[in-house]
Every structure is written in structure tokens, then in C-alpha cells.
């Protein structure tokens, strides 16, 4: 089983795009990317714009190589919203646009899957709470819809996914933000066997704490990451996405690594997992523009 993180916040764009090769299948998960239109009252730096184009090009390439594509929800950094035709040549397992979904995601999903004609000319299956088995021993399991962070958030719900092949598993838990809800944590803990080779998860949004997200929710997300280390014990715990948008992410990860010491869990950002330098460009935006002034 091979796991490649195609793009992520620690690699310079808003994304958690992942590509998995398992049991003879190529699986593209949330292959998309975006950047913040404004951050620190500043527009994207040219370096961010270049990185976005690179990330989108790689996402397209990996999608074209995929026999199976997964979309866990309809936020624009998680799918190629303007290119539904790229999904037509493969099985698409997607969040149901009719159930357990907020208005914004329902509209986006309808435009992408139905209005585009993808539902008619492609192979689309809604994946909520499903377990799918394939020839060659591949299993893909989906959680029930769980909150995009704290319980009751206006951002709606997302799916988590587990890929199993030959006794190995990879768990993808994008945008659960820690998780920021007990329900999402309980769903994850059901996937302790087989022990995950990799768990890829969005950490809590430190940059929104006390502003758009309650501080208690951010603190819960941090505590739940510690529970994941203690009880789920993935070999590699990749914590990225929302967490990395705040300079304080390093302290959170350092503390989590302390909790993981002696457990056999390695705590990493996506960039570190891929052997790349940390480049959280959104977090660095003020410094990037200051460099331009110099």
C-alpha cells in the first residue's frame, strides 16, 4: 500500500488531497486545492498562486490515474469543481447530496454531479455509511456524516473514509478539525483494527478560535487528537489542513509528539510525511509580502 499526500496546507495550499495505491487500485481522495482570498488583510502572494497552480495540476494528474475517486464533501478545496468531466472515467464515491447536508453543500453538489451531467455519463455512487468491497481484496468503508468541526457548525457534515488492503488500513478524516465533535471521534475509534498505517486528519482551526469557532471546540479538538494517539494508535498520524493555518501549530504538534512518545505513533505534518520542507504559505503571508517590500 502506497500513500501520497498530493497537496496540503503545510505544502503551501489549502488542501488535504491524497492518492492511495492498494490491491491493484489507484484511489484519489479529495483531489482539489485552493488558497485564502484574504488573510491578514492581504491578498495571496505570487508564490501562493504559483503553488496553487502546481497543486491543481498534480491533482488533475492523480485523478486521471485513479480508478476510484472519493469526495468527502463539497468545499472547493476538496474537489475539482469546474472539471466534472475528469471524474467521468472512473468510479466516484461521493457525499450524498440529498441527506445530512447543509444548503450550501447541497447546491454545490447538485451543480457538480447532477447539473453537469456527471450523474448520467459517469459512475457515481453516494457513499454515506457504506462498506464497499472490490475484487482483489480491497475494501473502502465510509463513516456516517459527521460534523465539519464542532457540533452544529454551519459548515455542515463530511464523510471519513477507510481503505483496507491485505491487513493494512489508511484512514482519511479531512475537515473534522481534531475531531471537534465526540461523534466523529467515536466513529474514528471504531477503526482501530487493523491498526492504521496512516491516519490523515485535519487538526483544530487555531486561527478561528474565539472568532468563528469557540475556544472550547479548539481545545476539544486538541484533546481528541491525544485520545487518537492513546487509543487508535496509527503508525503515522498526519495532522494538517486547518491546524497549520496558525503559527501556533508547531506548539500543538510538539505537545502531541510528547504525548505520543513511547506509543509507536509518529506525529507528522503532510509535508514531513512526504519528506518535504514545511511551507505553510498562508501562515507566512505577511512575511512573504514583507519580503517583496524589501
Automatic annotation (TrEMBL):
InterPro entries: RibonucZ/Hydroxyglut_hydro (IPR036866), UPF0173_UPF0282_UlaG_hydrolase (IPR050114), UPF0282_hydrls (IPR014426). It comes from the Archaea. Belongs to the UPF0282 family. The keyword Hydrolase applies. One of its GO terms (molecular function) is hydrolase activity. Keywords: Hydrolase. The lineage of its organism: Archaea, Thermoproteota, Thermoprotei, Desulfurococcales, Desulfurococcaceae. The keyword Hydrolase applies. Signal peptide: none annotated. It comes from Aeropyrum camini SY1 = JCM 12091. This is UPF0282 protein ACAM_0387.
